[in-house]
## 1
Amino acid sequence: MKRILGILVLVAFVYACSSSDNDSDSDDNQGFNPSNFDRTPLLENWADNIIIPGYIDFLSKVNTLQTETTAFTENSNDLTAIRAAWLDAYTTWQRVSMFENGPAETVGLRLNVNIYPANVETIENNIASGSYNLDLSSNRVAKGFPALDYLLFGIASNDDNILDIYNGPEGEAYKQYLEDIVADMQSLTTTVLDEWQGGFRDDFVANNGSSATASVDRLANDYIFYFEKFLRAGKMGIPGGVFSGDVEPNTIEALYAGNLSKLFFIEGLDAVQDFFNGVSYNGSTQGESLGSYLDELNVLEDGTNLSTTINNQFDTAREFVNGLNTFEQELQSIPPTNFLNAYDEVQRIVPLLKVDMVSALSISIDFADADGD
Amino acid sequence: MKKTIFSTFALATLVFASCSSDDDTTSENGGGLIPDIEVPETYSFTRDGASTINFPGQTQRILMGEELISSMLDFDTATEQSLLDMFSNENTPFINEDLNASTRQLRNTIASSEDLFTESSAEAATIRQFFADLLSDQVTEVFTAQAVVASAGVAGQIADGGSTRYVNAQGLEYNQAVTKGFIGALMVDQIVNNYISTTLLDAGTNIEDNDNDIPRNDSGTDTQMEHFWDEAYGYVYGTSADLTNPNLTIGDDDSFLNKYIGRVEEDADFAGIAEDIFDAFLLGRAAIVAKDYDVRDEQTAILRELLSQVIGIRAVYYLQQGKNGIESDDFGAAFHDLSEGFGFIYSLQFTRNPSTDAPYFSGEEVLDFVGDLTTGNGFWDLTPEQLDTMSEAIASRFSFTVAEAAVID
């Protein structure tokens, strides 16, 4: 009781001090600052309407992939169904990749299912030896979606030749490997969803404080980290040669299937913007979000709501990327000017999230650029 | 393109002088003034038109170190014997034939400074064996566990972000311990306790020879004193893109001391340190040319302090980064940082505090730290509190704080 009184006194004091500030926003702001804002509805919306439904959908797509993989290994005459299941699951992955927090972080989901490009030599060695431990860190480059990309599209020059391999003398070893890596994805995803649906959801929501280890701070960091390193750099910056100085077309996502990396980028961008606005995974309802949180704090930038500025830049970036040909085509231009112009619009989102948003929300960035070795 | 710098004494006089109306900056009439020192813009010194700079041995040892540490992760071809051969340059172990042809080696240069090890040969032998054991253990413990998932008490591989690290049963990456350990045991020891020490600089007839511009025996141009100073310089800049103007690429030229001067420079708390280190090398060398041994020794003190600080800062930095990793259950990232920190902590015993004229931490103190890091299951058992305590203990001997060293910002 004493403590509440103390806070009241403090609020009154702060209010008294600011009332002479001639600040037209002060009435709206009263009671709203990042440290006493109730984060529970925000965390509930994230967990119940976005993250858990996302993982449910993703797991169901992985399960379908597993079913189609089994079907393919029983009758290896047609790649259509297994490829479609792979594409569906890979597309859905772009919706959940950003949630590398809690259970997904513990198992390292993202780097276990989507390090690209895959290491073909390791894959072939594993298949040839027939003895491999997919739990090894060094095998992460030989499994997940990128390995399937290679196995379903890249092991031979055309579909007939690919099918010949599955029906040839080494066919059983290839089929076994397909099944094993899909089972690995299924097992990791199941673990993550089970934990979210078990105790983690409640822990996540209950950790509603404003410290560096609170859920909002952590997930916001994971979200920005994803945007910067995986969406911006991984899908565009690295292939475009932004960091190395040389275009690296062999580092695009879904290298062997081809013509998908742009679609995956857009899917990822949509997911990131939807998360910012708190849009439900299933449907278009908007709940509490980073955007609404900024609005409630009445964060303005040059007279415009910061959330609007951020949404506008998401839209601009999308417009630029949508205006491109496939990434494969764009990267054939030297330098790939249009591609890089689009990249720059994507880059412009980084400081809005990483500087403006986090400082308004009093969130500390907990990651730094790697030390280099 | 030469600028003239005066010794501290002369400079102080000049400052006073410049406050007076007489703005004559020359000191030709200065009866009591210490002679001017001509300091070139870059590390270029000549006598009779020929360069007097020469440090092939330092460049070679850096290159030997590079081959050795990269070979420590060459699971397919390296053997215990091949690594030990590289360490002592036997049986033509290197890819670079120049290194094979050289009579120089890493092993007998480790822990061999005049000031610390002349009368401590047993200690020197123990330190050399420490590194030899790390090389052997890499093959017998880590290579054999290449396809094992590491866990407490079990050597193997562990994920660190997108990278895979190979650790011993205690979570230590031997290759990191060797690399960062060399920075102290080889580079810093050779510089601060050997080549820029009066023990070497002023040995025998060095002062008299330098005073009279008498070249050392096997060289037509440089004096012995100049050469010692240049050898010190070579341990920092021996593989720099521009040997005379090395700060252009500081941090990118090797995996050892140069690299970590560059890293510390990136932290705003210590920005300027790379220039300060280079300037001290430059002025010290110019002072030798000008026969001004007081100024030279002032630069020795500066270099001892700053180079020691680089080791101290990185030790604390990695302990703090390791703490962050442990707090977020990211053991792979934590162990990688702690492995680097382990090497820097080991290196502390080769530092030199100009105020006490002794290393900032004794060998015994360092072994206590090593003991703390490697008891039981080693890194697997460490707590954030232990790492904070250790960080504080290290920072408290230096002029920086844990917070300043903990992040590069």
## 2
Amino acid sequence: MSDFFHWIATLPALVQIPLVVGAFVAAVAVILFFVEIAPRSGRKYTIIRLAVCVLAPLVIFLFLGSVLWAAAVAAVLGGIFFILDYRAKQGAGYLFQLVGFLAPALVLLLIGLVYPTISTTIAAFQNSRGNRFVGLDNFQWIFTQPTGIRVVLNTIIWVLIVPAFSTAIGLAYAVFIDKSRGEKFFKILVFMPMAISFVGASIIWRFVYAARPAGQNQIGLLNQLVVLFGGQPTDFVSISPWNTFFLIIVLVWIQTGFAMVVLSAAIKGVPTEQLEAAELDGTNAWERFINVTVPGIRSSLIVVLTTISIASLKVFDIVRTMTAGANETSVIANEMYTQWKGFENGRSAAFAVVLFVLVLPIVIYNARQIQKQREIR
Amino acid sequence: MSAVTPIDVPIDNATKRQLKAGERASERTLTKRTKKRLTSRGATIASLIIALVWTVPTFGLFISSIRPAALINTTGWWTIFQNPGLTFDNYSQVLKAGNSQLNLGQAFINSIAITLPATLIPLTLASLAAYGFAWMNFKGKNWMFIGVFALQIVPLQMALVPLLSLFSRGLTIGGVQLFAGLNASGSYTQVWIAHTIFGLPLVIFLLHNFISELPAELIEAARVDGAGHGQIFFRIVLPLTMPAIASIAIFQFLWVWNDLLVALVFADGEVAPMTKLLAEITGGRGQDWQLLTSGAFISILVPLIVFFALQRFFVRGLLAGSTKG
């Protein structure tokens, strides 16, 4: 395997794309071919199935650079799988097809998400070299250091402010432009930052915040406005504690478009009859909005809020690009990376676990909301 | 029989015209009224301000990127009419800027080389899995699907470091080497695999929403006609869900193109994408605005083109993920 990738890596970048994509498509085609012929009955097909069951694990393991006898064990397991499949309740070949469809994705998830998650959790309780258990020392280090506490606090500030503001602004904008002329165009304007990378957005806003000493021409838009109203130019990203809020604006700027589009679609789903009935009852626009529209889009509101909360908990790129965590702006995700770069694997893992614990309740809540919505439908 | 039946009233042409005009007028006010129902003057002003704040920074970046370096650093971009001057030097300069291993022009190629396979591979694998979950029956299917869904909980940060050591050192259990390691640092391989894995849970979930809603009769009919699961997937499910796949593909594309964290960990040296190099330039040469503005604009150009060209799919994909159950 590594030989193949080594050979590929020596080629020009743009040649690699068709080669890798071609190899991948060929592999998928082979899977689909065997899946297609698997359920057919007859001796010929049984032999083909047996051959694939035994040879596929063998080849894959050898390909991965496994030792010979481990590959042999895999082949034997493949043989056992063949027998299981042969006696499957739904008919021979059914399990075979199932594995063809599900195994590639599930195996990758096991290797790339399940195993690393367990591994990181263990590492969080070990020292930086990962050879000795240190109990809760890493967590203690985070929560007793002033900088560590600051990092956690900053993350909490992010998760409190970003969802609230982006949802509020997005909702207001969606309501204001609803059914107005040029609605589509207005939507695009606010939606556009969604397509911009966090790094790009950070540079855009660094430029807005750029400061020149008083007396010189300002090149940053915000400082120009400050000067225009008679203030002193300030370096917004370096004055603690307000700099965190100036970083937060960047994420609000990005996420508002998301909130706006989703909520706008939800608003259009609110039955007009209800709004008209409320109007006949003599309510004003604000009452109609609070009592009819908001309850009507409640589930969408929750999904938007939770989605943005998760995004702001994991925020990394913005902090990394704008301040790299300097001047007390660091957040958990950034600190996790910084510690890892500093060869403090234990602390890095501990930060990751703290992040996981913070994300967990929001995701569970979100999943239950989706489940509920499903049951209603 | 209803009490009121339409009858032919003998009226002259003039009256007819008058009536029609009235009808039209009443219609016009009606539509106007529904249009204006929620918008007042304050709301209009507020939405104009929001629209401005959301576009002016990007616009300023673009204007600055085509101004001469000396002017960018001494005058604001809004004074472009007092201090005129247009140049593309910034772009040619930034394409050559970078570190010892790579410049931004090469990083642009890297971004493409990383993004295309890292979009195609997870979508294909996920559509296979989504089909399996949607149209095949097996014990524990629901639990397994919930398990895949739940993997979205795991923040990337949990998975990065162990996955990297898996790539570089392989997997050895009890002294038995199961996996020799990719030994592929400095190639795109590990970035592709990492992005594939991290994208899978969400993509499987979203595609499952679409694939499971195809009419069962269709699948059944194909089966009666003698198609196996392989053919059903390739000839029926795949073409029918193409619009959904396209809209989710846009997200995966943007996600990979815009990603910084995975690139920082997995793409080292010569294979770094633009985001990583730009972040580096921002850190090291943070006051060279002629480089930053043009560099940033190059990096947001591709997503913006994708966004404007495929906007319909973009919105549909977004809504599939959030409002649809």
## 3
Amino acid sequence: MDILPILSTLRRHKVTAALVILEIALTCAIVCNAVFLVGQRLDNISTPSGIVENELLQITANGIGDQPDAHARITADLAGLRQISGVDSVTMANQVPFGSSSWNSSIKLSLDQKRPTVQSVTVYYGEDIPKVFGVEIIAGRAFQTNDYTWFDDAAKSGNATFPKIAIISDALARKLFPDGNAVGKTIVTGTNEVRIVGVVKRLTRPSIMDYSTAGYSMLLPIRMTMSMGASFIIRTQPAERERVLAAAVTKLKAMDNRRVITEKRTFDDVRKAYFASDRAMTGLLIGVCVALMIVTALGIVGLGSFWVAQRRRQIGVRRALGARRKDILRYFQTENFLLATIGIVIGMVMAFGINLLLMAHYELPRLPAIYFPVGAVLLWLLGQVAVLGPALRAASVPPVVATRG
Amino acid sequence: MLKMTHLAKVYRTEVVETYALRDFNINVKEGEFVAVTGPSGSGKTTFLTIAGLLETFTGGEYHLDGVEVSKLDDNARSRIRNEKIGFIFQAFNLIPDLNVFDNVEVPLRYRGMKSAERKQRIMDALERVGLASRAKHYPAELSGGQQQRVAIARALAGSPRLLLADEPTGNLDTQMARSVLELLEEIHREGATIVMVTHDPELAARAQRNVHVIDGQVVDLAEDPRFHANAHLVGANS
């Protein structure tokens, strides 16, 4: 291979070679980190909720003025919604996965425990949530009708009417009881002891701060009233969603024309709204990466074309001395490979540095080692593709050029 | 060694055909030192580029070392250039970014020769032209005569059957030209076949045989009427 003579040649063109190396290094450093950030955002966006997202609708309504007989009104509302053709089940829930606000509690394993075992577990209230949300119960049982109490009663009466049982998510169960079955065990939420009667496979929290604990959730047998941001959750067939949503809004208004519908959306809209900023950031980062790579590729094409023009006579001489077209092609590809390799090595050091900065200032995790070879391969490929045009032009220089002045 | 029969080279544009060589016949035997002379534009350099397989020709036949070359593809032509032909150009054509050693090494690398053999051949060739001590110098650090000696070393390193020289002393002063010519004569005495294109009568006179090219054809000066109209050429073709 012509590596040593090529390196010797590059040493005599230090400035131009250094510029390309720097360009490749910067691109490598930024692309490695950007691809890592994009990967993280995409992981976030694809976080499973554990619920039947394509069957659910959410309607939030607020009453105007006094709302007497809240229990009766909500019971009537739910009954009215169930009458709509296509409605499978319905509940009023305090929150939904990927919602913008969340209800949380710390969990201890005993009343006298000083520090909670889990600092923040999201708590779902609402009748028949496992059934309406389509959450799979993988151990124990669902709540029964006589397990439920009303939210305002539980809130007013303190510990006396607070539920004594709970269902928790599998992720939380594994965290609290890593060695065994959680069903039948007692935990403490706030100052209330509750016995775990069931475990659901997955139920993701709203307002996720830390995706590693996004699956820590608990359900309590509490019926919600139309307060504190609670909303109607309707389950229907995917194809029926738009029609049922419109019918449900009409029905709710018909049942109370003073009611104001503040939000009506499918769960697809919930997810879309929640991850809007992640998608925007992903698009921005991909755009920056693509733009950087295009600029780098153009730099390589420019330098390659310049060198081919500058070395045209030299290429003719090489051809005259016996170089085949593929030898000339390989020369320029090897030269680019060497420049890219030096750039990539420097770029990886820079990528590591940028990552340290991001870790210090934005609490990002360490850049996994896998991104270094990914970045290297990407930049090598980019370099080879970019230099191909100039290299093919070089390979087409005829040997007779050697004799022309 | 080199035989061209009724060879033609035509440059065509949309409106005109220009014959650079027409019914060109030449036969150079192994071990000969032939000077090809002629006025500017006569076709000498075209002959050399075709002889060196740097260009294709339009008609006729060309046998090089017994091989009819017109049907060879680009790779085969490259291989013949690399293995059988050594080039010495007027402008030296050294690669300015490579030192003397690396310049001489260029054709050997394309031959796929092992490193140890390459090194041996390069040093032998540089010894022969008296520049072994300049192996690490770059062309810009050498005089014109030394650069041409490096070019000769590069041509010799591959042990070619045929040396093609295009005005090898054209860019040199008299003293340097003389030393380069003496080197070529020495190489010839050792058995090399040399074809040298030149318009320098003194240089041509040192060759074993002169071939005269006028208007793209080899001519016998004694019989060609154009020669009699251009008496100054006599000196060039003694």
## 4
Amino acid sequence: MKRILAVTLPLLASMALVLLLGASLWSIAGSQTPVNLPELLAGKMNESGVNHPVTAVLLNFRSYDTLLEIAVLVIAGITGISMARTASLEDPELRTSDSLLYALQRWFIPLMLLLAGYLLWAGADRPGGAFQAGAVLAGCGVLMRLGGIPLGFLRPGLLLRVGLGLGFAVFLLVAVLSAMAGEAFLAYPPGMTKPLIITIETVLTFSIAMVLLALFVSAPVNDAGAPGEDDS
Amino acid sequence: MTPSLLYAFAGAGLCGIGMFGFIQLRHLLRKLLAFNLIGSGTFLVLVGLAQHGQGPDAVPQALVLTGIVVSIAATALAIVLIRRYFHLSGHTSLEADDSDSGQGGAE
């Protein structure tokens, strides 16, 4: 009886949630929106410095979100590293060596690096941009890590710190400098928009890849003798 | 009723499934997955609802893109924390006794 109640109550609660959400969705969908955002955006596109609306919103019109996002990422990365069991994130003992992976990544890594560069560049006028490129770059790093390639920059030190903080630091620097030059905080000076956006996207790519890779690497590894953890 | 609205309703459904899983499941990784399901449902609602009236809208799409990146980082951090917790305590759920685990419990 108690067990049935323990299943039924959450079931009823979540069904009520779905019904409530559905009803409010229905009423929102039926009402007229006061602002036509796509039209507003299309009217401002040639001020944004890029040709793709999503990139324009991310890095120009709502760059506050992106700035705070990279801040969240850096904090998550630092927390992850400080939670790691191992003193060094890049220990020769932690490398695996698998000949199949090694052969595979000789083909894959150049291609993935190329793809990351393309995605970064494509963000200006089609889907793509810093986050996609950073994710591909991080995947590349994960593959290298699994294949046993030494990743010296993951050792605690200057390179790791710079890599984690670079994107946020450059973004914040641009924001503060443009504020000091007389514009609003995070408003790029006219004429400099495109180069600034490309610079920020590039450093963001590196930092995002670095954070994701650090989070992957810092999951505690298998030397603790814990049950079910050391059979790899 | 447009296809975009269907996405929004699917998102609401995902929110419900995720909420049920989040309450009901014991294993921390399952809880994390259920929580991610709620997040994905929210993204679907945001994009689908905005797309319903006036075609593709870049503003919610950009917000959802930001949200996806943050949720990836948060998930990875949660996994690091869960593994650390498992190493320290040996438990996979927050309750100390796993003996009375119900359906889909801690096994």
